[in-house]
Write a structure and sequence with these properties.
Layout lengths: L11 H7 L25 H8 L14 H14 L3 E5 L2 H12 L5 E5 L4 H10 L6 E5 L4 H7 L4 E7 L11 H10 L3 E5 L17 E5 L1 H5 L7 E5 L1 H15 L5 H11 L2 H19 L5 E5 L9 H7 L6 E6 L3 H10 L4 E2 L9 E3 L11 H7 L5 E5 L5 H23 L1
Parallel strand pairs: 2-3, 2-4, 4-5, 5-6, 10-11
Antiparallel strand pairs: 1-7, 6-7, 8-9, 9-12, 11-12
Length: 406
């Protein structure tokens, strides 16, 4: 069954099992893996026509590959996008999308609360090529409005943001972007496509690190860019083809198989994240819990408006700062210390010393990334085991802190 033969009204789980499949003459059940760099033509004339775009077909796996195409088509079906392009990593997706939106003399506006690599692209990489950048407080709609200029061509945000889980009002910021003819680019990794649909909310481009929830099992890197067909073919494709951030066909095949269980995994991880957030919120060693699914989230109204679930990530601040936060992390048994997220294994990291280490103390303080803040990615373990592990680690961290202070 090819994606074109799927009924248009099937649900996301059906699309993620059957969508994008193009079977070979052998009629395989599992999607085929085409580990090839190049392709053979029937004649020199056929090669000429294909390179000229006059004949359909593949010319080189840096430009396109059948397995990668199946993954792209399936992601487009999931997201409700006209077109998708896969990249070698999430940062490749972010960089290519922003480069495709800009040229020398342009201006971009981005939220301050971004993953460290994303801030580098906005603050340092693009300005090297004559693109000015302004950073704003993402939740402050008025700040976005004041920052745009006539030469603004792109607005970029993460929502929920890494690692503070701050939310940005996508429809409001999209309206601001469109008022000056700019495109809104949304990194939707933390929300996942199961809980937030930025394109339907007004965004123009959505980017993912497919390394996270899409693979979701710690195996390979990947990224995805989704948008309308015209922008993808006229602006993005030339960047991807000429600079070469192509996804490996093998990685695309892994991602295809992962998408078959994507809704099940996200549903379970979100349910467990909700339970864990509620269970630890009142522990005396926890200064605060930030989770979009809780009523005490600073922007709970926005979460209710544009998200269908709280997601798989929790931010928690350990009372006392860095040392108790480290003691808590080191006392965990089930949850592992890692800077990755969206994995089947529950993972925790200390952003101030890892993912956001390159920021200054002042920048981290402005974003709310204190020395006691931890980012927790909930996996597929038994919910009760996660709560028990978190509780015993908090208790032990408290005892260690008391001993050190006494």
């Amino acid at each position: 069954m090819s994606s074109s033969s799927l009924p248009s009204d099937v649900g996301p789980s059906t699309r993620l099992v059957h969508g994008g499949v193009e079977r070979s003459q052998f009629g395989e059940t599992c999607e085929a893996l085409y580990l090839t760099q190049g392709f053979v033509y029937e004649s020199a004339e056929a090669a000429e026509a294909r390179f000229a775009g006059e004949e359909d077909g593949y010319v080189y796996s840096r430009y396109g590959n059948p397995t990668v195409t199946m993954f792209q088509d399936r992601m487009a079906l999931l997201e409700g996008a006209e077109a998708a392009r896969a990249t070698a990593s999430g940062m490749a997706a972010v960089t290519a999308a922003m480069v495709a939106c800009t040229k020398a003399g342009d201006h971009v506006v981005a939220s301050k609360a971004l993953f460290g690599g994303c801030r580098y692209v906005v603050e340092e990489f693009l300005p090297r090529f004559g693109v000015e950048a302004t950073l704003v407080d993402g939740p402050d709609v008025e700040a976005w409005k004041q920052a745009v200029r006539p030469n603004t061509t792109a607005l970029f945000t993460e929502t929920p943001a890494n690692p503070t889980l701050a939310l940005v009002d996508i429809p409001a910021v999209a309206e601001i972007a469109h008022s000056v003819g700019a495109r809104l680019v949304v990194d939707n990794v933390f929300a996942t496509a199961m809980h937030q649909a930025p394109l339907k909310l007004g965004a123009d481009v959505v980017v993912y690190s497919a390394t996270k929830h899409v693979d979701g099992q710690g195996r390979c890197l990947g990224g995805v860019i989704l948008s309308d067909e015209e922008w993808v073919t006229e602006k993005l494709d030339v960047i991807l083809r000429q600079t070469g951030p192509a996804m490996s066909p093998f990685n695309a095949w892994i991602m295809l198989k992962s998408l078959e269980t994507y809704p099940l995994r996200i549903r379970q991880q979100t349910a467990s994240a909700t339970a864990v957030a509620d269970a630890i919120a009142d522990h005396p060693r926890v200064a605060r819990v930030i989770y979009p699914g809780r009523a005490d989230h600073p922007q709970a109204d926005i979460a209710r408006k544009q998200m269908t679930g709280g997601g798989t990530l929790i931010a928690l601040e350990i009372a006392g700062g860095r040392d108790p936060a480290f003691a808590f992390s080191n006392a965990l048994n089930v949850v592992k210390i890692s800077n990755n997220l969206g994995d089947a294994k529950s993972l925790i990291t200390h952003p101030a010393s890892t993912t956001h280490q390159r920021l200054t103390d002042e920048q981290r303080e402005e974003l709310g990334i204190g020395p006691g803040l931890l980012r927790l990615s909930i996996g597929l373990e038994d919910e009760a085991d996660l709560i028990a592990d978190m509780t015993q680690a908090l208790d032990r961290a408290g005892k260690k802190a008391s001993v050190s202070l006494g």
